[in-house]
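Repro:
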Amino acid sequence: MAEHRPRKVGSRLSRVGTSAMPGVDANAADDLRFIRQTLERSSTFTAVPGWGMVAVGVSALPAAWFAAPHAFGFRWLEIWLAEAALAVSLSIVAIQSKAARNGLPWTSGPGRKVAMGIAPPVIAAALLTIPLYRAGLSMFLPGTWLLLYGVGLVSGGAYSVAVIPLMGATFMAAGAVALFVPGGANWAMAAGFGVLHTLFGIWIARRHGG
């Protein structure tokens, strides 16, 4: 009888272990999933505001309409600079709102990397505005703005959701068209800052939570 007890105990432990394994595996999978999601959130800026981007795009369309009769004079420049200030304000408010809603930091880690990727080309575009306008080459400003903004999205988007670099590439294409067809550059601005912002904003809002 004593010889059979170890087998009985062993088989019982084997049955207990086998029945416990699914629970252990499930808990381990949940833990790994949580760790993976945490790492992704810590390395990727996900507070990209889709609906805020739509608002920016919608605001650019009337700007293009009002600026068209004044292309490419000082009044035209004033309208687009005012639109740029409005777009920046809308973007900051929308990013803050989405980040707060999702409990994500937007001024540290990936957020800083995105900003450092976007800021240099945008600053370069702002600085080039002055000499190009003074030299009477303001018809090349839309292409310059679109192209460098697209460069910023491609570089900064490397630390954000995957669609942002693609969006940057389309802005670069619009900028290239505006540079080589300067007569239609004002409407390239409408297509880029208006239509592209709106379309990509809707895509981001649907796929990435607003």
